[in-house]
Amino acid sequence: MHFSDLLVVLIRPFIAAGTSSPFPALLIAVLTALIVPTGLMGAAFPLTVRLYEMSASKGEARAVGQVYLANTIGSITGSLLAGFFLIRAIGSQNGLFVMCCVNLGLGAWFLWRRRKITIAIAAIIVAAAFALAKPNQVILSAGIFDSSEPILLFARM
Length: 157
Fold this sequence. Notes:
By secondary structure, the chain is mainly alpha-helical. The chain folds into two domains: 1-79, no CATH class; 91-132, no CATH class. Helices cover 76% and strands 0% of the residues. Helix 1 (3-16) crosses helix 2 and helix 3 runs antiparallel to helix 4. It is extended. The termini are far apart.
């Protein structure tokens, strides 16, 4: 089942009710696409604090402080490196894959003492993502390339 099939199932009640506005469809599409990622991002910090606390044998307050410091430094450094280097060097889609590799590697590092198989699982997930992803499909399916007659907006000589 593709995302578009799920979207059709979720929108059917609005179509049956006679709604002609595209707003319910757009709202459901956005909510469906954003619920899982935002939920996982919201769970990342507390999970990281707990994993660090377990692996470093530190108190909860010290673990929160150290993870928060690392998060702040990483956020500033990561945004600068991604904006000025990574996207220009390898593109946005490959940059996302690299950042996924970094995040999986950090998560596996925290779990290393508990479960050594996590490194293998993370490597399999990253390898599958690289193998199954099609180049530039994210950008090409964004909706900006669907015009049959492109309009030239800018040219540099």
